[in-house]
Design a protein that fits this description.
Zincin-like; hydrolase; 4 domains; binds (3S)-3,7-diaminoheptanoic acid; Immunoglobulin-like; zinc; 5-stranded mixed sheet; binds zinc ion; Peptidase_M1_pepN_C_sf; protease; alpha+beta; globular; 28 helices; Aminopeptidase_N-like_N
């Protein structure tokens, strides 16, 4: 496979002004007729270079240039393209290709999911549908006609507005027109026997928009939350960004077989059913919240992505980073802002920091790739969103809004770059953001080392800050970046704030900030709200962390202080364990947490976050050589020790919240979600005590709860504790009740696969034999193999290497079916350098075996090559 470089970008030789598609859909094939109106790119010279269209796995049946059928010598077809020589500046091209959607297991292009046809074109799927200039800077108007069997496929959808329809015997057809020019990656069609839920939304200028959700009939009762989320998103984007929707209809379709969460096709979003369907009895709070944010994310793309799109795929974060920032702010406004930030930061630090420190590290705007599908990463999405957040912090809300208005206005209908986005922010602020843009080109997570000094005589407090960014593949040396460091100062005795939050701007490798008029040595509250995606180092003592946890006015930093305290206590005990001693835990952590539990000012959601220990994955991420087995043992011992010390308050809180839950109708709203989270968190501590009344309460919660959040938490507690018999009973009852719902079965698979106590590799193999499992369905693969390799770390890293072998063996199978998924699933093995020498060897051996696959995909090839070096 060849490497594609940003530096090689060239404008397209030809433009496509109009695209007229006609799909004839049959059970064993589809015919795609394309009529394209093309023109030599007027921005370039007036020579007529060959026209090279992208096309993969297409069987060409017919080709005509300006209505003249071409003879065999007049065009060339290879594995990836169709080449011909135009004779005029403006011309039309007609092609007909035959494809086989029913055999498309890659789930890219046109494929079947269950009884329906659907598409996924981003990034380069359109070339699997027809010959085309499949690149985002070629924007065209589209009309689409679909014809199919009337009975089997009563619903025929594509982008835009329906302009015509009709019947012919057993078959029928519909024509759609999208008035907005778009790149091919935003094309979509759907055909199926679908139930439709309809609603409407009146835009800020008073236009009426029809909203439709199409789902399989058995899911008709799971649409309300998605629809509500859509309407909230539409309103929010008007209020916060001044963005109005621009078509008369907005459609969402739910499909079961989908490689990612969802796709923002113009006017016709297609969703993984797990990211849009929910009802309280079947779906957890986490699912409700995920749906709210993904529906918003895809809707927000209508402006940040569709109206203004990317010039090339190196600019992917232009739309993804910005849109993740937008959806995060939306979720923060709809729910608890602090808790949302905590969740996002925990995720970023655990997974994106690991990516940035590993062999697959790349900048927010990568300079090269082999397979673009591999670059839908945490760095592009989550770090990209942090970069936009930093701009927001540096400019302030008002200027940022002016900048986004200018960006949308300047570039509406264009395909642009990250530079254009930053340029709009520069225009409105008058700032030179050249150095800030290093965030787009430098990979790696900067480290901030902060120290301080206080001069009582001068009443002066000084902060010394050094930044440095570790080397990453291809980038041995880094320049200092622009880093907003939000800082407050607390009175070290009373805890009162002596300086409110101030954004210190780092621009140099080393800088000093002076605060004057400070009456006594203060305690700094640094990087408030996680104002930059960096690793912060400041030598807080445990007493200071406990103090910040009790007093900081910044909710995020209270949580952070608790996490840092827990990390210190854990690390000390881990060293003891590694030295063959019995780990002992500093009681300061339990004391600090008991104050948190008793605090009547704190809401339940934040309490739940504060009493949660850092995840095993994060604790490992912090170690130079990750010691999975000992870390797991010590973390569990620490949890038990906290449960013992906090038993009384935990019991009280659990009982009170469970009572309250029983007496309240379930609603997936922030207050209730926070209470359930605390309830379930306390239960998980209490279960460690192995007491009969607690086990009984857990089983009662499992059997009696009227919602999946409480049931699933109870089930997880049974599966994760040494009560195998009760766990198996509960699993069996659960399976019987929910066997018909694939989304609930995903949860059933995943709760087992994630549990180190319950599932070793043998158990994972058994789950894969279950009739509800299918290796062809990405949700099932994620629920079993994904959960095993990412959440069941002790078993995945089992000493005999069996976890690695199992994953690699399945990656090999997946690679023959769905390369996007194989390249994703192999990820946990690619971090082999983080582990102990024996594990490194075992992991490498598996990766090397995979490299020998006779027919390896480009996706997997690239990941293996980068990981093995
Ligand atoms: N833009 C899509 C992702 C497409 C991934 C293609 N491999 C979903 C999203 O980010 O909204
Ligand atoms: Zn997106």
């Amino acid at each position: 496979p060849k490497t594609i470089r940003l530096a090689d970008y060239r404008a397209p030789d030809y433009l496509i002004h109009e695209t007229h598609l006609h799909f004839e859909l049959y059970d064993d094939h589809a015919l795609v007729h394309a009529h394209l109106v093309l023109e030599r790119n007027p921005q370039l010279d007036d020579s007529l270079p060959p026209l090279v269209l992208d096309g993969v796995k297409l069987e060409l049946k017919h080709i005509a240039l300006d209505d003249r059928v071409l003879g065999a010598g007049e065009y060339q077809v290879d594995e990836e393209s169709l080449r011909l020589q135009p004779e005029k500046n403006s011309f039309t091209l007609d092609t007909t290709v035959r494809i086989e959607p029913q055999n498309n297991t890659e789930l890219e292009g046109l494929y079947r999911s269950g009884g329906m046809f659907c598409t996924q074109c981003e990034a380069e799927g359109f070339r699997k549908i027809t010959y085309y200039l499949d690149r985002p800077d070629v924007m065209s108007s589209f009309t689409t006609t679909l014809s199919a069997d009337k009975q089997q496929y009563p619903v025929l959808l594509s982008n835009g507005n329906k302009i015509d329809e009709g019947e012919e015997g057993e078959r029928h057809w519909a024509s759609w027109e999208d008035p907005h020019k778009k790149p091919a990656y935003l094309f979509a069609l759907v055909a199926g026997d679908l139930w439709c839920v309809e609603d409407s939304f009146t835009t800020m200028s008073g236009r009426e928009v029809t909203l439709r959700m199409f789902v399989e009939p058995q899911n008709a009762d799971k649409c309300q939350h998605g629809m509500d989320s859509l309407k909230k998103s539409m309103r929010w984007d008007e209020e916060v960004y001044g963005r109005e929707y621009d078509l008369d209809i907005f459609m969402i379709v739910a499909v079961d077989d989908f490689n990612m969460g969802a796709m923002e096709n113009k006017g016709l979003n297609i969703f993984n059913s797990s990211c849009v369907l929910a009802k309280p009895e079947n779906s957890t709070d986490a699912a409700f919240q995920r749906i709210e944010s993904i529906v918003a994310h895809e809707y927000f793309h209508n402006w940040s992505g569709n109206r203004v799109t990317c010039r090339d795929w190196f600019q992917l974060s232009l739309k993804e980073g910005f849109t993740v920032f937008r959806d995060a702010e939306f979720s923060a406004d709809m729910n608890s802002r602090t808790v949302k930030r905590i969740e996002d930061v925990a995720y970023l630090r655990t997974h994106q920091f690991a990516e940035d420190a590993g062999p697959l590290a790349h900048p927010v705007r990568p300079a090269e790739y082999m397979e673009i599908s591999n670059f839908y990463t945490l760095t592009i999405y989550e770090k990209g969103a942090e970069v936009v957040r930093m701009l927001h912090t540096l400019l302030g809300a008002e200027l940022f809004r002016k900048g986004s208005d200018l960006y949308f206005e300047r570039h509406d209908g264009q395909a642009v770059t990250c530079d254009d986005f930053v340029a709009a922010m520069e225009s409105v602020s008058g700032r030179d953001l050249t150095r800030f843009k290093l965030w787009y080109s430098q990979a790696g997570t900067p480290v901030l080392q902060v120290s301080d000094s206080y001069d009582a005589e001068k009443q002066e407090y000084r902060l010394q800050v050094r930044q440095n960014c570790p080397p990453t593949p291809g980038q041995p040396v880094k320049e200092p970046m622009v880093i907003p460091l939000a800082t407050g100062l607390l009175d070290a005795v009373t805890g009162e704030e002596v300086r409110g939050t101030q954004v210190l701007e780092l621009t140099e490798a080393s800088q000093e900030f002076i605060f004057t008029g400070i009456a006594s040595q203060p305690l700094p509250s640094l990087l408030r709200g996680f104002s930059a995606p960096v690793r912060l180092e400041y030598a807080y003592s445990r007493e200071q962390l406990a103090f910040l946890l009790a007093h900081d006015s910044d909710g995020f930093n209270r949580w952070e202080a608790g996490q840092q305290l827990a990390i210190q206590v854990f690390s000390e005990a881990l060293t003891q364990q590694q030295n063959g001693q019995t780990p002992a835990f500093d009681p300061q952590l339990a004391q600090a947490l008991s104050k948190v539990l008793a605090d009547t000012q704190l809401d339940e959601a934040l309490k739940a976050e504060i009493i949660s220990l850092p995840s095993l994955a994060y604790l490992l991420e912090l170690q130079t050589e990750a010691d999975v087995a000992n870390s797991h043992v010590v973390r569990e011992a620490l949890r038990l020790s906290l449960a013992q010390q906090l038993e009384q308050p935990l019991r009280e809180i659990y009982q009170q919240l469970r009572e309250q839950a029983r007496a309240t109708d379930y609603r997936p709203e922030a207050g209730q979600i926070g209470r359930r989270r605390l309830q379930n968190m306390t239960l998980s501590y209490l279960m460690l005590l192995e007491q009969d009344d607690i086990l009984a309460a857990c089983i009662a919660q499992f059997e009696q709860a009227d919602n999946m959040t409480e049931r699933m938490a109870a089930l997880a507690n049974l599966v994760n504790n040494p009560v195998r018999e009760q766990a198996e009973q509960a699993l069996a009852a659960f399976e019987q009740e929910f066997a018909v719902d694939p989304l609930v079965m995903d949860q059933w698979f995943s709760v087992q696969a994630s549990s180190p106590l319950f599932s070793d590799t043998a158990q994972i193999r058994q789950l894969m034999q279950h009739p509800a499992f299918s290796i062809k369905n990405p949700n099932k693969v994620r629920a079993v193999l994904g959960a095993f390799s990412q959440h069941n770390l002790p078993q995945f890293h089992a000493a005999d290497g069996s976890g690695y072998a199992l994953l690699a063996e399945q990656v090999a199978v997946l690679d023959g079916l769905n390369p996007q998924i194989s390249a994703r699933m192999v990820n946990p093995l690619t971090r082999w350098q983080r582990y102990q020498p024996r594990q490194q060897q075992q992991m490498r051996a598996e990766l090397e075996k995979l490299q020998q696959l006779p027919k390896i995909s480009r996706d997997l090839f690239e990941v293996l090559e980068k990981s093995l070096g």
